[in-house]
Prior knowledge:
Layout: H1 2-11, H2 18-53, H3 56-60, H4 64-87, E1 98-99, H5 104-139, H6 150-167, E2 175-182, E3 185-192, H7 198-244, H8 259-274, H9 276-288, H10 296-312, H11 316-323, H12 325-371, H13 377-386, H14 392-402
Antiparallel strand pairs: 1-3, 2-3
Amino acid sequence: MLCEVQLNSSCAANNMSREQQLFRDIYHIFYRFGLPSVCIFGFLGNIINLVVLNHKRLQRSLTNKELAANAYLVGLAFSDMTFCICAFPSMFLPEEQFYSDKGFLIHYAQYCAAIINIFILTSTWITAAFAIERYLAICHPLTSRNILSLRSSQYVIIIVFLGSVVFNIPVFWRYSINEVVCENRTAYFLEQHSVISFTFEHAYRAIWATCGNFVPSVILIFANVCLVVRIRGSYALRKKFNRHDTSSCSSPPAEPNNKITMILISIVVMFLILVAPSEIIKQCILLVDDVITCNYTYMSIEVVTNFMQSLNFSLNFILYCVINKSYRNTMRHMFCCYHEDRHRLSYRSSYRSTLNEGIAREETTVVIQNETECLKPEKREALLNYCTHKTCHETVTDIHDNGLS
């Protein structure tokens, strides 16, 4: 039966429906060109994020609470980078989902959904934990004084990652490899089935949609709204203070350091635009009808939403460069110091060469003076002029061998 499906799919190339043709065009554009480009850019951008965010110059400019928030940015960059690495090989998957052997590609296709889901869930909940941390630091600074620390942020990131791995264990058994013999050739394909039962599969998808999308989205929206209101209130209060107390000797209240908070707000907005709608749409469709995954319209939507998710995991580098001045200064300092160090090393090398040459000439002059003390003054001066461009060893050799006395 599967052989007939394969033959029919290959023979019906000239009789494709509009939905099938649209799916093939979208698949070719997004999975063959768009997704690889985004993954490469995201991989390189997140490596730069990890280097800059862990740089001593940036960390020295942060307070203890900001170091705790910076740990979430580091964890998010690592998770996003790993997502880009795991999603990149999907460009090599065959469009018809048939494989000629049991090689890397079919095993990757079997487990990539589970692995990618781990890092999607990890990045989602790191962002949610980051939002909670910023909400406590900005809106409840006294209460959070003894709660927020670098060590607590590190513990939260580890717990989030381990929880994401455990939560996605059932997905590792969602697909199995089967084979079919067609025209004296053996082809392999993946068959999707329920892990334990059909009821368990639907319950698991409902829990995933709730814990992986709905709850984090509610947390992010709530924290984002509170942070925006608090920041706008602080700006308005500072303007009012400066307007009424310009002649007062007292200094205005210190401006809160909102650079990390502004980064969070931008990350949350991008998440709510690129990730949350796509995941909620896909999960709701799968809960209503599981057979719809074979529909070309649904598959076209899935390709577009997967590309949108990849954008979310790749664009944080641009956000940091645009919003955070400390990030830009640290990155500029790193690259400028690299070129300055190379120039300084070249200068030191030439300086040492010149210095060594001068020392050698001084040593030559001393040796000549010692060797020619018995000469007359005019011959001694002529000999010194003669040996100006010779080394110490050559000069002494000439004195002893040629008898220039």
